[in-house]
Here is the input.
Amino acid sequence: MDTFDDPAVFTTKELIAAGHTKREIAEAVADGTVTRARRGIFLRGPVQSSLDFAKLFRGSVTCLSALRHYGIWTPTDSGLHHIRVKRRQRYRLPPELDSYLLRCRVHSLTDDPAIPDGQVDSFAEAIRCAVRCTTHEQLVAILESVMRANQFDLFGLDLPRFGRLGAAVAAASPLPGESGVETLVRLRMERLRISFQTQCWVGPYRLDFLVGERLVIEIDGFEFHADQQSFRRDRERDRYLELRGYRVLRFTAAEVLYDWDACEAEILTAVRARIHRRG
Here is the structure.
C-alpha cells in the first residue's frame, strides 16, 4: 500500500480516497504494516508533526504550535505539541501508544469553536489559547513578535481588550530586530529595576544590552549561534569589547528560558560589584 510509505497518520476516509479498499486496510493492520490507533485512525512509524498529532486526536493544532506554524516566535516548551479537541471528546489511545500523550498538551475549552478543516486553528484562536498557557512575560514577547512580523493586525481581530491579553498588549513595545528571548531578558531586567540600553553600538558591533557604562549582556539565540563560524564571530566580538574596557556576560537562549535564576544572580552580582561602572 503505497499510501503507507510515508510515516504519518491516516484516516479511513483518506485511505479510501487514495484508492485502498477496506479489505486492504484490514490486511495492512493484520500484517503489522500499519497500526490502528483508534477507530478510523491509522498510523505507520513515529508520529512527528503537530498536524499528525492533531489528526491522531481528531483535533486541531492550536496555541504555541499554531503560532509557530504562522511564523511567530514562541517560548520553547520541550517539544510539546499543542492540540485542541472538542469539549468532552475522548482522546484515549491504546496502551502501546500512551507515550504520544506525553508529547502533547491537549486543550479542551468550554467555548471551543468547530475544529477547522485544515486542522490548524486560526491566528485569533491560537492567541486566545496562548493567553491561558503562558506567563505575562511570555505573552508580551509573543505579541511583540506578532507586531514585528507585521503579518496580523492584533487590533483588528476579535480578541478581548481586557484581562491578561489587554495587559500584555499594553506592555508590548517591540524593538526592531529584537528576538523573543531578548524581549524576555528586557522585561526581566526592567522588573529588577536595572537601568540599561538596548541595541546600542560600540564600534562595528550592536550590543543586545548595555548596563551602565561597561557591562555588556549578550544573548545567544538558537538560530544564529549554533555553528563554528558564529562561535568564532562571538569570540572576536567579546575580545574587541574587552580590550576597550567592557565586561561581557553571555547567556544562551536555553539559559534564559530554563535557568533564568542563575542568569539573574550573575547579572546582580556584577551590578553589586559595580562592574557596570567605569573607574
Notes: The two ends are 75 Å apart (CA to CA). Residues 1-5 have pLDDT under 50 and may be disordered. The first strand starts at residue 8 and ends at 11.
